[in-house]
Amino acid sequence: MADEEIALNKRLHDYLQMYVKNIKLTVPKFHITKGTNKGDNYVGLIYRVTIEGIENGETKNIELILKTMPTSDSFVSIRVTKMFQREIFFYREVLPIFKKTLKEYSEIVCRFPTLYYANDEPGKEVLMLENLTQQGFVMKNSKILDYSHAILALRCLGEFHAYSFITRLANPTDFDKLKQMKEPVFFQQPHDDRSIVKNLNNIVIKALIDEDKHYSERVQQFSDNMLQNMIDATDGKAAEPYAVVNHGDIWTNNMLFKYDQEEKTLCDLRFLDFQLCRYASPVLDIVYILFCCCTQETRRKYYNQLINEYHETLSKYLERFGYDSNTLFPYKVLNQHFIRFGKYAAGMALFVLHLFTSNDSDIQIAYNDTSMLEERLKNDSFYRNMVKGTFKDLVDKNYI
Hints:
5-stranded antiparallel sheet, Kinase-like_dom_sf, 3-stranded antiparallel sheet, alpha+beta, CHK kinase-like domain-containing protein, CHK_kinase-like, 10 strands, EcKL
């Protein structure tokens, strides 16, 4: 059954009209459907757009993704506006710097969709992006990464982080621009979310009720000073000279995977949604994947292997450009960063584990009402084991 077509508001329709005018596409017809299923995207509205028109006397079809601000006045906030502006900054400023640097080595950066148009006017933010489904890239059905998906994600992450290490040396003037990025989420601000943190922390403590008390004590110590812990973890200056541009929100739904149809195996990946990209230790992206998107069993079996694959891919990529990872980011330093910055995973896990383990698209209301989560702890063994396993492992590895 075909997706139901929808009508955009005048502002978004005008953006599409302006886009086709700029590319000299005449007699355009727009076919617009929802771009994601309910619950797949938590910040923003996504539309899939097909444009039919005439170019140089020939029929042409263009497929793109339109991403814009939520329409509900109650949801739109300064924080959401800044997230959209940060993503536009990534496509307009960060990515061109990486492409410019790697082009000097005859290398193409292709891990991201192409940006066709963006507007960063406050309250009217919009991005028009390449529709990667046309190339066979799809979203994974489950929000949890198994070994095969996790190892591909970490290999591609190693390549992505390598762009920063290369640019730092090959293009230091432009790299200084990247270092000026302000932290998008964790900073001292007038309002605080201590009540939300307390509610979510109580869920973790209840999940650990049958474990040795030192687990709950360590979790409580982390949560008691949550904001400062996360400020420390995301401090790019503290990670120098090894800080890189992080994806910032590198979970399953922000990756598109491609499968070899004959071999039925994973073969490629693209990264999406850079609304939280930041300048910080590479470890932040790694632990987000390992502790928020993987099960305890996956970590138990493959933790060291996954980290080794990340560093090996980064090292090989650096070597292609004549650089040595033993100088730019030694494995010893990587391990030190896990101890120093790995606590980032605990802060993120507090907020996202209930989202990543649920098929309920409205589960985000649990931030202020944990009765639903308490019920899940009793009746949803997968959720309970994810929470328990994640925080036990964070304590056992001395990250918190």
